[in-house]
Structures are given as C-alpha cells and as structure tokens.
Amino acid sequence: MMKSRYSTVESLKIMGSASKQVIGPDIKVLLWNVFKCKRKGWQNDFTSLIDDKDLILLQEAILNSPFDGMFNHSSQHQWIMASSFKNVKSNIETGVKTGSSVMANKHFFSASTHSEPITKTKKMVLATEYPLASTTEPTLEQSLLVINTHMINFVSFEKFSAHLDQAFQALEHHSGPILLAGDFNTWNKKRMQYFDELAMSCSLKEVDITRQPRLGHLFRHLDHIYCRGLGVVDVHVHTDIHSSDHYPISLSLRLADD
Prior knowledge:
Layout: E1 6-16, E2 26-33, H1 42-50, E3 55-63, H2 68-72, E4 78-87, E5 93-100, E6 106-111, E7 124-131, E8 143-150, H3 157-169, E9 178-183, H4 189-201, E10 205-206, E11 223-228, E12 230-237, E13 249-255
Parallel strand pairs: 2-3, 8-9
Antiparallel strand pairs: 1-4, 2-13, 3-5, 4-5, 6-7, 7-8, 9-11, 10-11, 12-13
C-alpha cells in the first residue's frame, strides 16, 4: 500500500499585526483560492490586490514557504492561518488563511471529520470575530463574524454535508453581522441546494457575482460569498489575473443600518 505524502496537522498560527482598531462601516474584501501559491506571478498579484483590503480570505494558503515573511512581518494585516495538512517531504502546510486590518477578538477552527480519498487530507473551517465601528447605539457591543472555509471534495454527499454543517455551526449563536465565504466545491446541484437551505435558515443572502463558469470547475461556481447585516456596494471578478486556477474576487460591503 502506497504511503500518503501528506500528514494531518490541524493547527493555528497568528502572524503580522493589524493597523486599525475597528472595522467598518465600509469594508473591502478579497476572496481567493491561491492554488498553493504555485503559479508564477502570484506574489506580485497578491501584493497589489490586498493593499486596500480590510479582510482577505484565502484558501489553499501555505505555511513554511519562502512567502512566510510577507505575513510574519506585515504591519497592515493580522493573519490567522488554520492548517489541515502538511506535505511530509517539503514540510509545507496547507489550509485557510484570513487577513484583517483589525485584530481578531476571537478565533476558532475546525477540520473536517472525514478525509478526502487518495491524499487522505482534511479541509478546514476558520471563524474569526472583529470589533465593529460605532453603530447608532454606541453602548451596544457588536462584532463581525467572518467564516473562511474550503469544503471537503471528492467524497459522498453525506460527508460533504457533514462538513458544511460544521461551518454553519460556527455561526448559529452569533447575533451580529456575518460574512461567510470560501471555496465550497459546489460542483453539483445537490450540494448547492443543501448550501442554500442552510444559508436561508440563518438569514444569509448570497452575493450576486457576475462571472463565467469554468471548464476546470465542471462549469459550476465553487467560490461563494454570503452575508447577513451587510450591504453589497460593489463586486469585481479579476479575470485578468491567472496566477491561480481561481479568479480573485474583490467586493465592497457596508454595514447595514439597524
């Protein structure tokens, strides 16, 4: 039997330092599966994309690579990475990473119960919470909950839905605004339908993104953004950037008035 080149990690690391005290009322976001930073030009694209962003949600992010210094020495964003597996040969960890111009109040991560076949790797849910700018009620302490996830793939619907349930369990007790985004591997109708049902039950609305489905993703959209208590000002898909197998998505949000 062939030994897997990957091992389970399930760890969290905090890097860099935030530049602001609170987030909002205007919030600029980047969502991007960075394809393990394998393609040429990734670093230049990444640096230009994050410059004005308050929140950056990455999937297939890596740790223990030559890029670590960008995150460790950042004075603009705090970075929190939840690793789910490690390449035994290179020692590079892979997972989801969230960057923010504001330091997180809380953080929580959860690896999928099940593993993907062949590689035996798990996928990760990362939840982070941030203090919000003063609302119409200064005495009311509200926070923004951000859930960054990469859903398990190449498994049965039952295993997929179990992992999606984990993501939604992270938000069920939060009363304030929510941003849920990531690569959800929703490449069939049944997965997408279940996702929509859970979102509706939590009063989350999907952000409408105009884009072309890609052959490599079975002509299905895999990256999704859902919000509650946030208004969408603008969305842009960077189809001119090819340093990943996913296009980066930028969006401008605004805290909804109470």
